[in-house]
Amino acid sequence: MSRRLLAVPALVVAAAFLLASCGGSDSESGSGSDSSGGSSADTLTICSDIPYEPMEFEADPPDSTPSGYTGFDIDLVQEIATKADKQLEVKVTPFDGIFAAMDAGNCDAVVSSVTITDERKENMNFTEPYFDSDQSILVLKSNASQFTSLESLAGKKIGVQSGTTGEEFVTSNTPAGATVTALPGAADLFAALEAGTIDAVVQDYPINAYRATTNDDVKVTARIPTDEKYGMATPKKDGAATLELLDKGLAQAKSDGTYDRLYEKYFGEKPPSGSTTTAKP
User: Fold this and answer.
1) Are 145 and 79 in contact (CB under 8 A)?
2) Which residues of the chain, if any, have pLDDT below 70?
3) What share of the chain is helix, strand, coil (3-state, %, to 5)?
4) What was the pLDDT predicted at 40?
5) Which residue ranges does the chain devote to CATH 3.40.190.10?
6) What pLDDT does residue 29 have?
7) Pairing mode, if any, of strands 43-48 and 87-92?
8) Which pLDDT value is given to residue 259?
9) CA 24 to centroid of chain Cα atoms
């Protein structure tokens, strides 16, 4: 997120593609999902790796939202779908196979805090950026004064999410003597941190920051600028209509105040002036 790695190993992609083309497992389907394919004319189907709070997570109770899911990303795309007179269907899909699932036709788009990269743009199309993100360091409060930078984690165990730009960043900038542990999801990282099997979590700032607001035992000690931006991804093939719908919806959400309202709901402030999240003049 930021989240979401530049590339996925070929064998993983191939395996995920075969799984997706066969309909996938129960974990790949959201509420009311038909795992055999994408959406109908009156439905916008997205693939999303859930949970990834506060961007996407299961609603409590599930029937409190139309799709059964919520979070900044989900609420934003729900607004877009509603204004386009479409139902939103969410298919929960592990991130390391999410693009293969989209290419297999399991969803119309990936909406899952996806960082836009040049490498990814060769294989999929992206909407205009809708969120600015950086990397960050989350540690136990008891270690907050000790671990204040990536360099301060020399010789320590650093946790990252598999298949993300956070993993790529830490792997390329590993402090001397540190070991990097890649885990499947943010929840796994938080559990490992609290259990003491890792000393720090390096991942997208909004995810770590939100965790710090819900758990008094942890603290974000550093925000690492990386100029990463999120976009919603659509297939290169047969994805033009979905891309247009999402881009129009994002522009409308930014201009009519919907985006600002959701941003303030989840992050406690309005989006920074001049960022990619603000409406174009």
Assistant:
1) no
2) 1-40, 273-281
3) 35, 25, 40
4) 64
5) 10-131+229-267, 134-227
6) 39
7) parallel
8) 96
9) 20
Q: Copy the structure tokens of residue 126.
A: 């992206």
Instruction: Give the H or E element holding residue 45.
Output: strand 43-48
Take residue 275 and report the two structure tokens written for it: 């960022």
CA-to-CA separations, 261 to 1, 79, 268, in angstroms, rounded: 21, 12, 10
Which run of H or E residues covers position 74? helix 72-83
Residue type, 127: T
CA dist 81 and 89 (Å) reads 10
Question: Contact 107/20 with Cβ under 8 angstroms?
Answer: no
Fold that domain 10-131+229-267 belongs to in CATH: D-Maltodextrin-Binding Protein; domain 2 (3.40.190)
State the pLDDT at residue 21: 35
State how far the alpha carbon of 274 is from the alpha carbons of 132, 159, 230, 266, 279, in Å: 11, 32, 16, 19, 9
Tens digits of residue pLDDT in 34-87? 333 455 689 999 999 998 889 999 999 999 999 999 999 999 999 999 999 999
Task: Say which CATH superfamily domain 134-227 falls into.
Answer: Periplasmic binding protein-like II (3.40.190.10)
Distance CA 124, CA 173 (A): 27
